[in-house]
Amino acid sequence: MSSETAKKIASCVPGYVGYWKREDRKTSDSLIRNYVASAVSSASAKLSEPAKGQAEALLEKLAAQDYSRFFELGEIDEEVLEHIRDLALVETAKRLEETEDADQLAELLQALERALDSRNSVLRDISKAPPAILKPGRKRESILWRVLRG
Question: What is the mean pLDDT of the chain?
């Protein structure tokens, strides 16, 4: 994750510093999930009944995430961290907060769920990878690297 990306996220999520340092990962993850959950909760009042159910499911998914292995990993290559895509979550959550149209809100909830699923998939992949694969300077031919690069 580039410092520019981290700055964009921090402009919406005060206290966010990224995942470079192990000691910052849990806090940054919590701040992101709390920001998204707050946006979803705020939008719930403007949603139709079916979309409210979708919002509740999304809130449950946000609360249920456990990346304890990710939080414990040592140094992780910046290019691997780029794939976490917190900026997509934050930007979509911000649009959710700013939107009044019920149809657009439902579309944004779906986009938010896709972004969260993508993020969760990447974090699971990183958590399962042998630590040596994730270190800076490592050759990019690893299986994880190929998976993350798509």
Answer: 85
